[in-house]
Amino acid sequence: MRIDPAIAKLVADPAPLFGAGEAVRGWSEDPAVAPLLAELGRYGSGTALSECPGLSGLIAAGAEGAGFARRAAGVAAQHLRAEPLALWPWRHFSNGVLHSVTIAADGDASLSLAVVDGAPWFAARDPLVPDLAAFQPGTLHAVVVGGTASGRIMRNRSDDPARAQIESQPIAFAPGTAFTIAGEREALALDAIGGLLMTLRLYRRPAGNVPARQYDVASGMLVHQAAGEQSDSRAELMMALLRAMERSDAAPALAALARSGAPPARWQALRECLALDSAAGFAALVEVAAQADDPLCAPARSLAETLAAQHPALARMREELLCRA
Amino acid sequence: MNLPKIDISSLPDLDVLTGLFGSLKHFDPGLAGSNDLIIVLMVYIYDTTPILN
Questions:
Q1: Which of A59, A108, A116 to mutate to test the interface with B (most CBs of B within 10 A)?
Q2: Which terminus of chain B faces fewer neighbouring Cβ atoms within 10 Å, N or C?
């Protein structure tokens, strides 16, 4: 196995790995920064942004955010450039087009710097791909720190999850431009970037478990839906693994997952539970089917009927369960 | 009671399929990053030692 000399050196001296912690600590204790990070903690715990005057000022239109971003970049980006193997305590990401670094995170909120590089962004565009709008729950407040661009804020006016009614509002980005995207109903689209576009972003994860949805802008048709909670997808992968391992002792845990949460995740738990342990899964299915106000009642009832018709043993089991209830 | 073994592929999905967290089609690479955290998956591997008689 090839081990890069720079990584091999860390075995003898791991200090570069942890140097970022020192850099962050020094910055976060700065008297100009510490109150903002305290507000970020409150905002991340659910406090309204209007009750966080420092943060509000930072992402408001104007130059205040730019000054803060420059200082933060001085700490984050410069440190990562000097010590590329440093364990930066928060997320840093690049896909060759977007480069972002989280400079503070607390609870559900995070503050990050993002740069979109116009040339690779333009090169990555596929003119054959239809114009899609991605509505991702969560709230983003951002202010442009540098560069210019043009785009649209798309708003879904429909209450029908199967079909969107999208209105677009053009937006021109220039240093000091502030914008807010309430992700469940609003999405941002970029149309042109002049060189680089750098923003300071305040993001808060959504409180509820609402899926992310993508629609075709022209027709409003739903083209893709994705889990709104990271933990739902994690559970889905774990359940598939447990089924593959035939760990029937996990069936009660799967049945419990089928009882609460987002309907798509619960349905997947029912399927996995039925495949892992048909008795435990079928009992959970009958339980869901019996709840008239459960959004999964109809598909659960239909599946229970089908399985009972296919398997006499399950039909008898259902009778027993219903008698007991 | 002799209960059947059910194949998961025989069980229906809901009308609208839900992809994994962060999965989006043809997503503008310039807009990624606010909500596409990686799925954390922990896999335990049990290594069994053969019993030697």
A1: A116
A2: C
Token digits of residue A38: 């305290």
Contacts of A132 in chain B (CB under 8 A): 25-27
pTM of the model: 0.83
Q: Which of B1, B5, B21 to mutate to test the interface with A (most CBs of A within 10 A)?
A: B21
Q: Does the predicted interface ipTM exceed a cut of 0.95? A: no
Question: Is residue B19 within 8 angstroms of chain A, CB to CB?
Answer: yes
Per-residue pLDDT of chain A (325 residues; tens, 9 = 90+): 788 888 888 888 888 777 777 777 777 888 888 999 999 999 999 999 999 999 999 999 887 888 888 888 887 777 777 777 777 788 888 889 999 988 889 999 999 999 999 999 999 988 888 899 999 999 999 999 999 999 999 999 999 999 999 999 999 999 999 999 999 999 999 999 999 999 999 999 988 888 999 999 999 999 999 998 888 988 998 999 999 999 999 999 999 999 999 999 999 999 999 999 999 999 999 999 999 999 999 999 999 999 999 999 999 999 998 888 7
Residue of chain B minimizing CA distance to A306: B11
Closest by CA to A241, choosing from B18, B53, B39, B43, is: B43
Neighbours of A287 (CB within 10 A): 18
Report the alpha-carbon distance of residue A254 to residue A276 in Å, rounded: 9
Sheet strand arrangement including A222-226? A132-135, A212-216, A222-226
- Facing residue for A224 by CB, picked from B19, B33, B40: B19
- Specify the 3-state DSSP secondary structure of A172: strand
B20·A243 Cβ contact <8 A:
no
